[in-house]
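Dear Dr. H.,

I hope your travels went smoothly. While you were away I took the liberty of generating a structure for the chain from your last submission, since the lab meeting agenda had it listed for discussion. I wanted you to have the full record in hand beforehand rather than looking at slides cold. The sequence, exactly as received, is reproduced here:
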Amino acid sequence: MRERNQQPSEICRTARLGGVSAVFSVVVASVCVLLVAAPTTVSAQVQSRPERDRSDPGPRLERPEPRRGSPRERESSPRAEQQPDGKSLPRAPGHGRGPGKDEDTKDTAETAKDPLKKLGDTVPTTAQERDRILANLYALLATAETEETAGRVANAIERIWLFSGSDTVQLLMERAAKALKEKNSALAIKLLDAVVDLAPDYAEGWNRRAYVHYTDQAIERALGDLRRTLALEPNHFKALEGLGQIMKDLDRKPAALEVFRRLLEVHPYASGVKQAVEELAREIDGQGI
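The corresponding predicted structure, in token form, is as follows:
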């Protein structure tokens, strides 16, 4: 009886073991199928990919260039400037050195070597600028070392004298000069009358009219205009020369000597003035200078 009871248990155990074995066999079989199928699938995927041209390197990622230097050095770098919107603009050549620094240095060197070069070519635009240029030119004239240098400075001064700051006055002066060249002194006087009326502080207008009066033998009028010229422009060497000559013609030798000496202080190389001073001094003092 006991043996009979044990037989069903053995049968059940065997059945259970057989079932487990069957399940395990199914699992193993499935794994084997997957292992066999995987290489085939991978191979098919590899074969399905398009072959890349080995000569084509494909897209490359460029590494950004490292930013060197301190923030201050980067700000002062001549490569670019930052706009308000953050964009960069290339800087112009010479940026950071100042506008035209090389040219300014060259001009400064040339001016130091020959101060007249810049002063003589400058055209004043205001009365203040005119006075400043004249002051510098008068200083150069008084200290000129040669007659040639003095002549250049004197010519530059005479050009500055013509500056009036008025196109109308300038036109009248040109027409007066033309009339005088054509020996039409009456027309020249009328034109110069208009000049001194329009610009009473314009010294050259009075000086030109004094010259016309002198050529017309209107000596007293010439003297009046010359004095007015010198009141406006004390270093006007042409007016000093004219005044000294009139004093000499009127036999007012001490006055003529004083004027000519003053003229030599302004223009040491004024033509014939040194000789006139020596002659007048001998006549007045009875001896040379």
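Two observations you may find useful: Residues 1-6, 75-84, 86-98 have pLDDT under 50 and may be disordered. Residues 234-289 form one domain.

With kind regards,
E. W.
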